[in-house]
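Colleagues,

Please find the record for the four-part complex below.
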Amino acid sequence: MNHLAQTLKALSDPIRLRIVLLLQAEGEICVCDLMAVLQLPQSTVSRHLAYLKRSCWVDIRRQGVWIYYQLSAESCAICQELLLTLKRHAAALPESVADRKSLAVFLKDKPAACP
Amino acid sequence: MNHLAQTLKALSDPIRLRIVLLLQAEGEICVCDLMAVLQLPQSTVSRHLAYLKRSCWVDIRRQGVWIYYQLSAESCAICQELLLTLKRHAAALPESVADRKSLAVFLKDKPAACP
DNA sequence: TGTAAATATGACTATATAATCATATATCAG
DNA sequence: CTGATATATGATTATATAGTCATATTTACA
């Protein structure tokens, strides 16, 4: 019960919710992508990602200097279902739609600078 | 997005989670029932219920001195789905099973004292 | 009207969370 | 090894949350 509550608490912040929805839509994102989309300082983004990692929502994959975050594949069954529910409703969340759009724009010009 | 985050935050406390799962199983509960099941002081229970009410998770029905809490019927679609997901997993949450059992025990002897 | 019972709330304390600056760490290129 | 870049973290401040005692409010009923 405490574990489930902590899991929900990790989602109960608007920024982390946006991050999770972006990860769900995109698959893998690094910190600098999120800084661009969320328009937040690097340390703020990094701390939210650390919170999500502590709460078992995300895993990381290191590639050189870049660290890519992705939704954890082995999260508990209830988390997977919660994610699916969020996904079904993401299209009705204006901020989520806008975030996905601005991420797409950002990624389109990114390959010149980053892998 | 902020509204959804606040909605999730209301569920992200172990005690409120237990309350919501009890309401889902039982339908209507009053504060004194919850005091018995959760073994917490009246003010603590009352504050958690107020939090759930502020977050649109529960409605109340007054019957004399007793105030019965129930899950809000008109909560948003995503909340309804979240509840269904929780319900499907409640049987796997030992605390939830125990709470429902102790509530049943408490209610069995309650009619003598309360309506 | 006055009392008792159920619930709500003010006031306080302790703890957790969130934002942010400055700094540290890790990795790669040269 | 050195510098540059991406990310993490220490320290600080502001705010939110949670628990709890004491007290207020609401309702029923004698």
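The first helix of chain B runs from residue 2 to 11.

Comments are welcome before we finalize the supplementary table.
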